[in-house]
Amino acid sequence: MSKQQPTQFVNPETPGYVGFANLPNQVHRKSVKKGFEFTLMVVGESGLGKSTLINSLFLTDLYPERIIPGAAEKIERTVQIEASTVEIEERGVKLRLTVVDTPGYGDAINCRDCFKTIISYIDEQFERYLHDESGLNRRHIVDNRVHCCFYFLSPFGHGLKPLDVAFMKAIHNKVNIVPVIAKADTLTLKERERLKKRILDEIEEHNIKIYHLPDAESDEDEDFKEQTRLLKASIPFSVVGSNQLIEAKGKKVRGRLYPWGVVEVENPEHNDFLKLRTMLITHMQDLQEVTQDLHYENFRSERLKRGGRKVESEDMNKDQILLEKEAELRRMQEMIARMQAQMQMQMQGGDGDGGALGHHV
Amino acid sequence: MSKGQSGLGKSTLVNTLFKSQVSRKASSWNRDEKIPKTVEIKAIGHVIEEGGVKMKLTVIDTPGFGDQINNENCWEPIEKYINEQYEKFLKEEVNIARKKRIPDTRVHCCLYFISPTGHSLRPLDLEFMKHLSKVVNIIPVIAKADTMTLEEKSEFKQRVRKELEVNGIEFYPQKEFDEDLEDKTENDKIRQESMPFAVVGSDKEYQVNGKRVLGRKTPWGIIEVENLNHCEFALLRDFVIRTHLQDLKEVTHNIHYETYRAKRLNDNGGLPPGEGLLGTVLPPVPATPCPTAE
């Protein structure tokens, strides 16, 4: 409580002040030192501007040497999972951001198996975390679970497509879904409102659980409450992405230049890019928490419940494994016998250094 | 006939092309009307008139095309429909007592709407056009072109043209049907530079520079449909209606229909349909005929 101490404490001279009010600051310092990690998955048909949007959101270039395949090549392709990690830093705070891309989604003529790869990837990450968590050394658990999934909806349709519905229903219990309307500069304001409403209606109709922003706490200031309210009212966000600087109204802005005007990425009247970015930044923590407390716990309980049944099949597997091991043992013994025979022949033929042959069983 | 996934602006564009409400827009659908489970064929006929010239225009829409999760063979109902129209015409033609003017329900032109992804064609687009460019005149159109900047537009068009060429898809105007040098040079220019047309459609009017124009109003500007700097709608309209309308009909009649007819007669042993050997019943209209050409 001396004046030489840094002024992190408020009213240090108040009687009865213990000092644990400083805990948040300590947590903050430790978190900053540890750094944050966040995994974002982007799913959507090709050509919806996913990569451009991700690059715009994080002001980076995640896909430096990108080759876009032609349609004939796309016929053969299956859905792939590509994860790229980038470490970005801002004012001393480090963020290890992993973006999981899903090229090939929605491209095939028959998209029935489109999302199997994606679902097994998500499950795999949960499985790995569960395994690490149940392990002996839990010091360096890497959290690669998918914290949030941006699902890109086409602005060209009249709402959700059958594939959209099927996919979202398949993953809404595993990951936080944030639906995003891509290439929003193709819609007039009225069309945008109509499309948003239609999408929300269809989401409700099909009982799809998308990520809901938590309401602002009652002790937050009015600005924050208003901001949260505005964000909630704009879901799904309709966005435009761009990393090109265009000259507009005398200043340089990020945008897209058309013969009829300039679409400014960071202009809230043009699109919801800023809202999406704000939501992501202010709710990154919440997204991680919901992933941990809801989706992961769901997965874990399901898995452990299944684990009881799985033991039976493991018993059977054990028998099988035993049989296999016995067969392998027999093969090894045969091999040793052969090698011994060879050695004997060599010893009879030449020097006796065949005895140095090391057996590796 | 207008084809393409729902929401690409087909109905709006057709309305704009013919400056009248010839197509029912999906947005005015009842809320209960969902994306149909199979591809439907909806034909609506109108009679429109301009300068004393009457034209019976039939617009065939195909809701449900390409919207499902599994789109395999979704072009089959369409191919079947087109062949049915040829069959109808053929039956009338071989009749002993022929009508003076055979009602022509054949499809003269198919506008195929490509989604403006900016990347390339979709596998579905390729498959569809491969199958159907052999039975009908296909004019590929890039829909909702207001989503691309000028560079993106020209890059995309080049890419699409190349893909169509590499995959052997002949869209209208087909190179092999150019009659003389004049046609060839004119069509070459269209084929290599303008097509596929990148269009924007609209049926709303706004005031721009004192004139009323068809357009789309956005917070960052008004997109004028008939302004060649904004989109190529005017080129498409002139191409389909003002210069090549008759040619579309002729190519359909002289080439596509004749190909169909030749195949049908061949299948039937050189005899017209309806007269099998010893009065046997004719085989039904095949769903996917392979043309004898190539």
From TrEMBL, chain A:
Domain Septin-type G: 34-306
Gene Ontology terms: biological process: cell division; cilium assembly; regulation of L-glutamate import across plasma membrane; regulation of protein localization; smoothened signaling pathway
Highest taxon in the source lineage: Eukaryota
Gene3D superfamilies (UniProt xref): P-loop containing nucleotide triphosphate hydrolases (3.40.50.300)
Pfam families: Septin
GO molecular function: enzyme regulator activity; GTP binding
PROSITE patterns (UniProt xref): G_SEPTIN (PS51719)
The keyword Zinc appears for this protein: no
Location(s), subcellular: Cell projection, Cilium membrane; Cleavage furrow; Cytoplasm, Cytoskeleton, Spindle; Midbody
InterPro entries: G_SEPTIN_dom (IPR030379), P-loop_NTPase (IPR027417), Septin (IPR016491), Septin2 (IPR008113)
Family from the record: Belongs to the TRAFAC class TrmE-Era-EngA-EngB-Septin-like GTPase superfamily. Septin GTPase family.
Subunit structure, interactors included: Septins polymerize into heterooligomeric protein complexes that form filaments.
Protein name (database record): Septin
Phylogenetic classification of the source organism: Eukaryota, Metazoa, Chordata, Craniata, Vertebrata
TrEMBL record, chain B:
TM annotation in the entry: none
GO molecular-function terms, A-Z: GTP binding
Taxonomic source organism: Prolemur simus
GO cellular component terms listed in the entry, alphabetical order: cytoplasm
Claim: Nucleotide-binding is one of the keywords in the record: yes
InterPro entries reported in the protein's UniProt record: G_SEPTIN_dom (IPR030379), P-loop_NTPase (IPR027417), Septin (IPR016491), Septin3 (IPR008114)
Native organism taxonomy: Eukaryota, Metazoa, Chordata, Craniata, Vertebrata
Compartment(s) where it occurs, according to its Swiss-Prot or TrEMBL record: Cytoplasm
Short name of one Pfam family: Septin
Chief site of localization: cytoplasm
Record keywords: Cytoplasm, GTP-binding, Nucleotide-binding
Keyword GTP-binding assigned: yes
Domain of life: Eukaryota
Subunit annotation: Septins polymerize into heterooligomeric protein complexes that form filaments, and can associate with cellular membranes, actin filaments and microtubules. GTPase activity is required for filament formation.
Family annotation (CDD domains): CDC_Septin (cd01850)
Function: Filament-forming cytoskeletal GTPase. May play a role in cytokinesis.
Protein known as: Neuronal-specific septin-3
Annotated ranges, domain Septin-type G: 1-267
